Amino acid sequence: MIKRFRGSPAEASYQVVVHFTIAVVALSALLPLVYVVGMSLTSQGELIARNYFVIIPNEPTIEAYRRLLSSKVLWNSVFISVFRTVVGPLVTIAFTVAGAYVLAKKDLPGRRILLTMVLVTILFRGGLIPSYLVMQQTGLLNTVWALILPLAVDSFGLLVIKMFIENIPTELTDAAQIDGVNEWQMMTRLIVPLAAPAIAAIAMFNIVTHWISWFDALVYLQDQSLYPLQLVLRNMLSSEAGSLNDQMLQSLADSQRIGPESLKMATVVVSIIPILMVYPFLQKHFIRGVYMGAVK
User: Fold this and answer.
1) Contacts by 283-289 with C-beta closer than 8 Å and gap 24+?
2) Burial class for 30, CB neighbours closer than 10 Å (0-12, 13-18, 19+)
3) Which class does domain 63-295 fall in?
4) Which of 190, 215, 216, 289 is the most exposed place for a label (fewest CB within 10 A)?
5) Is the model's pLDDT at 205 over the cut of 80?
6) Phi and psi (nearest 5°) for 263?
7) In Å, what is the CA distance from 20 to each residue of 2, 17, 34?
8) Could you give the CA distance from residue 187 to residue 268 in angstroms, rounded to a whole number?
9) Where is the signal peptide (predicted)?
């Protein structure tokens, strides 16, 4: 890099500073992950000997993962989280794209009123108590659908996709109408493929939101068998964890080799693996969708 800018010392110094800053930021983001992984691979005896601060264990062990993956509580919570993370974004994208397609029509009667209603939902929230009462009145309380249906429409994503659709050349839609396609075919065969980058970006945001959410499950669910993985993790990490935390730790940490701290860190690692696996496949569409949506 310095050779490339040999004729410009100021530019070479600037590039060195930029790369050094990026390296420091990357290391600062990577260090907590390395610490968590190291703690999850450390036995209880080594944790005590090293004062519960281990980055690279001297004698790594996968006992925490073996015990963790043998827990029925964990697998049940993983199933709930996967179900929510798969079905939730599909529902959100379906309703959001349909709403964006309709609101993108400039000759739609009452379009301004509908857009105002969408904007109001972005600026103002109903609050926790009204939301709980809605879940109770609709019979969704203590069901997995209470984690999915409240997020069925992404208002911000709806506006982004709407602006994306509005910038599609009208010649394409006019040609499709001449060919005799109906509104459903227009949306699914023409609009959705063209708006795929924006849809992928919104889908990625929703996937992450559904995967990391736990507070709505804490509020709406009483049945512990419906708890998602993040709520189980929260209960394990919280100092106020109840019977679920105690039962899980007692069933898992039944020897002196692996302690609760290693099990907690192993649970953290397990909870972030799916996102790390999904993100590389959507990164190209995610960046392009965010960029194009922001420009539009």
Assistant:
1) 285/196, 285/197, 285/200, 285/201, 285/204, 286/200, 286/201, 286/204, 288/197, 288/201, 289/197, 289/198, 289/199, 289/200, 289/201, 289/202
2) exposed
3) mainly alpha
4) 215
5) yes
6) -65, -40
7) 13, 5, 20
8) 40
9) none
